[in-house]
Amino acid sequence: MSTENPSTAEIDTTLFITVSGPPGCGATTLCTQLAEAMGCPYVSGGDIFREIADEQEMTLNQLTAKADESDEIDRAIDQRLQSIAEEWGMANKPFILESRLAGWLAGERADLRIWLDAPEDVRLARIEDRGETEAEMRVREVSEAGRYKSYYEIDIDEREFYDLNINTARWSKRGVFELVRAALEEYDPEADEGAFETPTVDL
User: Record's InterPro entries (predicted)?
Assistant: First the structure.
């Protein structure tokens, strides 16, 4: 294993990567490390949510309340994420897209799709500093899964098309980064026999 600090371990790649997972899975940590190592942009669903809040001159809490009232905000976020995926899917440059639906929305435009997860108690401990309770986290996950099913017929538990599924509780933050870095550095498009097909998402 490399002894370099993950914040300085450069990765020479042009891959477009999606990272997805439930709250507390470690997605933000991994994406931040990857973006620095790859020297590339990183966009998350949270970034788009904040962008829309600014455009509508609303606080995040106000926009959250509006999102709970209708599907308008969710669909606007997903449409922007899909547009970003379409743009970067043709760029032949490194890029990272992170959201619960990033792998679905990017589909075959993405070169590598990653799902991160961890046992519920581990994820809960990780989000304690965000002020979210166990009940709130569970309600949010159930609510999101219901919306995805209702809007797009997406079963968020369907993960066969992900290229990497990682339990981030089994490795340190650096360890998770090193696992993904190894996958990126060992990827050979000439040896790639094909990704699993991703169901089409009709927004």
Answer: Cyt_kin_arch, P-loop_NTPase
If DSSP codes are grouped into helix, strand and coil, which group holds residue 181?
helix
Which class does domain 16-182 fall in?
Answer: alpha beta
Long-range CB contact pairs, 131-137, < 8 A, 24+: 132/23, 137/23, 137/24
Read off the pLDDT of residues 32-82 as tens digits, 9 standing for 90 and up.
999 999 999 999 998 998 899 899 999 887 887 888 788 888 899 999 999
Unique residue bearing structure tokens 């973006």: 35
Give the Cβ contact number of residue 10 at 10 Å: 11
**DSSP secondary-structure letter at 26?**
S
Binding-site entries: 21-29
What's the predicted TM-score (pTM) here? 0.90
d(CA 82, CA 86): 6
- Per domain, the residue ranges of the chain are 16-182
